[in-house]
Design goal:
Elements lengths: L5 E4 L7 H10 L7 E6 L4 H12 L2 E8 L2 E7 L2
Parallel strand pairs: 1-2
Antiparallel strand pairs: 2-4, 3-4
């Protein structure tokens, strides 16, 4: 079990909306806090790592379970 501070479920949204929602959620947390994103968009496996790297955030845990992708991003 990974600890997180805020969780958003963006299932049912298609690219680029899951990433936009995650970016908006990141504005509401402080450095060191963790955002958990749950989505079912197949492009998220490319978008979220690229986003985290480009912004300097730490995407420290990812997994797929029953068709859902889970991302844990620590804000820089």
């Amino acid at each position: 079990m990974v600890n997180f501070d805020i969780e958003i479920n963006v299932c049912g949204l298609e690219c680029p909306l899951p990433l936009f929602k995650a970016k908006k959620a990141m504005l509401n947390i402080v450095s060191g806090q963790v955002l958990h994103v749950i989505c079912d968009d197949k492009f998220s496996c490319v978008n979220f790592p690229n986003y985290a790297e480009s912004e300097g955030h730490d995407l420290f845990e990812t997994y797929q379970e029953e068709g859902f992708y889970h991302y844990f991003i620590r804000k820089k």
